[in-house]
Automatic annotation (TrEMBL):
Presence of keyword Secreted: yes
Family per record: Belongs to the glycosyl hydrolase 28 family.
Keywords associated with the record: Cell wall, Cell wall biogenesis/degradation, Glycosidase, Hydrolase, Secreted
Pfam family, one: Glyco_hydro_28
Official protein name in the record: Polygalacturonase
Length: 405
């Protein structure tokens, strides 16, 4: 085992040692919870459960004993829910049925807010069921590619300032915007999390994570119309494992650089993931001609399978969609400490690997191991299949097919 492999292994073990006692204690404490069934608060199937859920939440968070709010089997309508802590004891919200949003935005008390927001909780679990945003009507309103003042559409599940928490066995369907975000949080696990939306649903990122530390996304299926997982700034120790992405735009860091307030990203692990008919595989996006000077470091993209995935590996430091910027100045974001290893499968694009780094801040300490990617696109462009590199000098180990840089 090389020194670099020993360091990576040590980091993973340290993260696991830190996390397991918290989660184990959580489950022991929450073994025999007090039950708060929303039907006891007047909830009825196919009717709006907003008030009943809010009342059950208020009582459960005030309980000094572990508690569980139950949404029973069946179909339930929910206009909007803003669920805030703190909670005094471990708390679970268990959905056994299908919770549906109204398709009409006017049904929301705050139509510029989110559909379900959960804030300021500790030792919290959201488990089970389907959360259906019924976003088909709202998608027609999304013109953000041409309109800077496009309407802000609500996302399905918004988690903010949560700690030591688990989201498991949950399905989010047809969100009007992003399916879930996790902001300003610590030690949060998404496991067996399913995102279901068509590939043409606009701006429907599966999970967006930012300003957080120790977030894991594991054993999950994410199919949507934008990034399966997107990562913003001020992140550390994000572990993404055993995730199948597709349809979607891939797993992305960024876009970054448009604000001077953005902070560093370090310790991102994308491992044992599969990309099926996606627009991209793994991607880093930074804006040129932008003021931010943050650093993006300690990145690991390993053991990835591409099944007809476009652009399997992309570092794009000239990210400028819809001509929203200029290319006259380079990105000021430094990318360093990167391992890309054991990426295999097929792609329909003519670029197997693209490392387009900034000339002002070249990518540093980049290590590329075994790459085995085959082109299955048009016969007429087969000869154009290659890799592209700019402002980077990788260190190689193993074999690369096609040759890198």
């Amino acid at each position: 085992m090389t020194n670099r492999e020993k360091i990576i292994e040590a980091k993973c073990i340290a993260a696991l040692i830190f996390t397991l006692p918290l989660i184990s204690a959580f489950y022991v404490a929450n073994a025999n919870p007090v039950i708060f069934d929303i039907r006891s608060y007047g909830a009825k199937p196919n009717q709006d459960i907003s008030q009943a859920l809010s009342k059950a939440w208020k009582d459960a968070t005030a309980s000094r004993n572990p508690s569980k709010i139950v949404i029973p089997a069946g179909k339930w309508m929910l206009s909007q829910a803003a669920l805030k802590g703190p909670n005094l004891a471990p708390l679970e919200l268990e959905n056994q049925g299908i919770v549906q949003a109204y398709s009409n935005l006017n049904s929301m008390a705050d139509n510029q807010g989110q559909w379900i927001t959960i804030d300021y909780v500790n030792y919290f679990t959201l488990s089970g069921g389907v959360f259906d945003g019924q976003g088909q009507q709202a998608w027609k309103m999304n013109d953000c590619n041409t309109n800077k003042n496009c309407p802000k559409l609500p996302l399905n599940l918004s988690f903010n300032f949560i700690t030591n928490s688990i989201i498991r066995d949950v399905t989010t369907k047809d969100s009007k915007s992003w399916h879930a975000n996790c902001i300003s949080s610590r030690n949060v696990s998404f496991t067996r999390f399913t995102v279901s939306a068509p590939g043409n649903s606009p701006n429907t990122d599966g999970i967006h994570v930012a300003r957080s530390t120790m977030v894991s996304i594991t054993d999950s299926m994410i199919g949507t119309g934008d990034d399966c997982i997107s990562m913003g700034d001020e992140l550390s120790q994000v572990h993404i494992r055993n995730v199948t992405c597709g349809p979607g735009h891939g797993i992305s860091i960024g876009s970054l650089g448009r604000s001077t307030a953005e902070k560093d990203i370090r310790g991102i692990y994308v491992q044992n993931c599969t990309f099926v008919n996606t627009q991209n595989g793994v991607r880093i996006k930074t804006w040129p001609s932008a003021p931010a000077t943050l650093r993006v470091s300690d990145l690991h993209f390993e053991d990835l399978i591409m099944k007809n995935a476009g652009n399997p590996v992309v570092f794009d430091q000239q990210y400028c969609p819809w001509h929203q910027c200029t290319l006259d100045k380079p990105s000021l974001i430094q990318i360093s400490g990167v391992t890309i290893n054991n990426v295999r499968g097929t792609t329909y694009s003519t670029r197997a690997v693209t490392l387009d780094c900034s000339w002002m801040k070249p990518c540093l300490d980049v290590h590329i191991g075994d790459i085995n990617i085959s082109y299955n696109g048009s016969r007429s462009t087969r000869g154009a299949f290659k890799t592209t590199c700019a402002n980077v000098h990788p260190n190689f180990f193993g074999k690369q097919n096609p040759p890198i840089c």
